[in-house]
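Q: what sequence does this backbone want?
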């Protein structure tokens, strides 16, 4: 399943539907712009989270340590959070 084919799933989320309803009922342009920006940031966060989680599932060839020469390896999956320009990515 491609990333773009998952967008309809994102559109069905309750928080997205709430923003879409708010956009449709907004009466002034500045309010509409703020809601549209919020929707855009929500989409950007979701796209990053989906893509990063897919990349994390793929095997990775680890390089050798520059100091001792031993092959580096993963210490396992750990959930992380990072603050970005588009918001918190989990």
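A:
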């Amino acid at each position: 399943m491609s990333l773009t084919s998952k967008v309809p799933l994102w559109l069905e989320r309750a928080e997205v539907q709430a923003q879409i309803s708010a956009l449709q009922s907004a009466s002034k342009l500045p309010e509409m712009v703020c809601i549209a920006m919020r929707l855009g940031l929500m989409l950007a966060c979701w796209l990053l989270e989906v893509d990063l989680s897919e990349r994390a599932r793929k095997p990775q060839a680890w390089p050798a340590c520059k100091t001792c020469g031993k092959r580096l390896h993963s210490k396992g999956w750990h959930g992380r959070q990072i603050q970005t320009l588009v918001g918190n990515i989990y």
